[in-house]
Amino acid sequence: MPAARSPLSDLKVLPSKPITVSAFYELNRERLRFSSANGLENSERQIHEKNLHRPGLALAGYVELFTYDRVQVFGNTEIRYIESLEPALGVQAFARLLDFEIPCIVVTNGNTLCQQLLDAATARDVPVFYSRYETTKATYFMGDFLDDQFAPKTPIHGAFIDVYGVGVLFVGRSGIGKSEIALDLVERGHRLVADDVVVVTRKGEGILMGSGTDLVKHFMEIRGLGLIDIRAIFGIRSIRFQKRLEIVVQLEDWDDRKEYERTGLDTEEADVLGVQVPHIQLPIFPGKNVTVITEVIALNYLLKHYGYDAAVAFSNKLKERLEAKARQDSGERAIDWFEHDFE
User: How far apart are CA 53 and CA 73, in angstroms?
Assistant: First the structure.
């Protein structure tokens, strides 16, 4: 019998879409305390890059490696350099940048551009934004936003639950009971992040974040019942809009010919967008309490996170006992004597 195809094999990475300068401004206006300097905040120019650029060398005349397709950040260095030049030379240096198709210019640290420079940018339809934040803080916020916009994403068919603060993703064949298990966990006080389609995004190099789709959000399909709204039934406490993905639980039909993990010493990992995530293959059959097992999986993960691994602790204890009593009967009691109350 051929092995079942893993639900995590051949994940398709969604192509990144450019964002408009208008969207960049609106989504960051409050967080970055943006203001539009030349009235072009509705520009349809597009940003294709997650990285930012400080155009100091380009202002000085070296444009061979000028990454003009990025958001251009003018901090104290750029502003002071322009101010140090003769007015005509300053305009010439600034106009050199405008010869390229740059998306927009963000001036940080409460600095401003003179009216002549603003007029030059407006004539070339280049939006200029002011931020009162210092350059380091502004670039951090902008970089975090753009990194999220252009981060690798993949849709995974499954149910994603926050169990005791641990993000658990259930995967498995269609109809195996992922949604029913998720519903049972929600009824026990845990929180639904997404059902059916989970969009997983890689943040940085080793963090995976999961969320639902804009259409489905916190609706859930229960076969035989239909669609239900988890938030409307269980309240705001029962949902989350995002959660870090920390464990993948693959639900499988019980196969008595297959060897399943019994000690926990041989841990498996699944590759999701290049990040290794603990992967548990959980066989199910009628009567098995998968909900409670999932809670134990989450609690055991927390124990490992804080430095205690039950499988390793038992293995070490067994090794010590075997070394100490190699020639004695292995059937000794767990305690030395019974207390008199015999409870």
Answer: 6
> Is 101 inside a domain boundary?
yes
CB 105 within 8 A of CB 127: yes
Structural domain that includes position 127: 19-149
In a domain, 333, yes or no: no
Bridge pairing between strands 105-107 and 71-74: parallel
CB atoms within 10 A of CB 198: 24
311 inside domain: no
Res 326: pLDDT: 65
Distances (CA, A) of 240 to 46, 195, 212, 308: 31, 12, 9, 28
pLDDT in tens, 273-290: 989 999 998 888 877 889
Number of domains in the chain: 2
Neighbour tally for 117: CB within 10 Å:
24
CATH number of the domain encompassing residue 242:
3.40.50.300
Same domain, yes or no: 180 and 242? yes
How many Å separate Cα 119 from the centre of its chain?
Answer: 41
What digits encode the pLDDT tens for the residues 132-158? 999 999 999 999 999 999 999 999 999
Which residues participate in catalysis according to the annotation? 157, 178, 196, 262
Residues 6+ apart with CB under 8 A from 105: 71, 72, 73, 74, 121, 126, 127, 128, 129
CA distance 232 to 277: 32
Amino acid in the structure at residue 182: A
Residue 15 DSSP symbol: P
The Cα–Cα gap between 109 and 79 comes to: 10
| 250/162 same-domain check | yes
Domain match, 92 and 166 both? no
